Amino acid sequence: MIWLTLLLAAVVNGQLNLPRGLNHLRFGCSQITVERLDPLVNPGLVGTPHMHQVVGGNAFNASIPSTDVSSIASCTTCGPADDLSNYWTANVYFKARNGSYKRVPQVPNSCWDGKTLDTPNHQDHVAYPTKGPADFLMPSTCPSTHPVKIPQLMLEVVWDTTQFNTKAEWPADGSQPFVLSTGDNTGYGQHGDYVFGWKGDSLQRAMDDNGCFSATCGKQKSQDVGVANLCRIPKTVVEDADGWMDVLPGNPMGG
């Protein structure tokens, strides 16, 4: 089971001794499924246009019938036992010289105007910081028009590409052989989705635990890797996700 690492950064409470914006959680999650489902972009659709790799709680499905995910999930593949959320990203595939594909095992706006949940263009209610480094670890300054710092979620996804090291299988022109499940071979189309599923105030309690950098924090219930890996869901889209294939699942190759 390949383990993914994710980093959750949130606004620091005023009484903490860390610089503002620096408090964060870091913990591992293993895959709960790899299939063509997306309850946010394509709710109810079995067999979405492209493949995703999913981690987190076992409530993940083509449709999630409740806004309180923690009430319908019974287990999670994440280190914190109370994090029943789901996190998913597009897969990466290796495109061989013969044209076949094989799956490779596996930063948004951070300032809000404080008033509008959405705008017609889905952009104007948020903005990027005006000062500070463009990362999740150091404090930054939001513009006066968007003074509220948004808790940030960073998905760090690591793929094991070692089985594709044989250059004889790479494209004859020497171009890089990896492609996202969306059909994008540039990498610019990578994206991630998130459904909140923390139980009760468990996330707040974890964030209040000054300097929590792993799954073992004093104010959150953690679970062993072996226990997390026992969390499973049945396949909804029945298709081969790991073998060699002539076309990408549900999606053509793009440029």
How would you sum up this structure, described in words?
The protein is mainly beta. The protein has two domains: 214 residues, no CATH class; 40 residues, no CATH class. Helices cover 4% and strands 21% of the residues. The protein is built from two helices and twelve strands, in the order E-E-E-E-E-E-E-E-E-E-E-E-H-H. Strands 10-1-2-3-4-12 form a six-stranded antiparallel β-sheet, with no helix packed on it. Strands 6-5-11 form a three-stranded antiparallel β-sheet, with no helix packed on it. It has a three-stranded antiparallel β-sheet with strand order 8-7-9, with no helix packed on it. Strand 5 and strand 6 form a beta hairpin. It is globular. This is DUF1996 domain-containing protein. It comes from Hymenoscyphus albidus.
Backbone structural class: mainly beta
How do the strands line up in the largest sheet? 10-1-2-3-4-12
Whole-number average pLDDT? 79
How much strand?
15-25%
Number of helices: 2
Radius of gyration: 20 Å
Task: Give a short synopsis of this structure.
The protein is mainly β and 255 residues long.
Detail the topology: elements first, then pairings.
Layout: E1 3-9, E2 24-35, E3 52-56, E4 86-90, E5 92-95, E6 101-103, E7 111-112, E8 126-127, E9 148-149, E10 152-156, E11 178-180, E12 192-195, H1 202-207, H2 225-228
Antiparallel strand pairs: 1-2, 1-10, 2-3, 3-4, 4-12, 5-6, 5-11, 7-8, 7-9
Offer a few descriptive terms.
single chain, 255 residues, mainly beta, 6-stranded antiparallel beta sheet, 12 strands, 4% helix, disordered N terminus
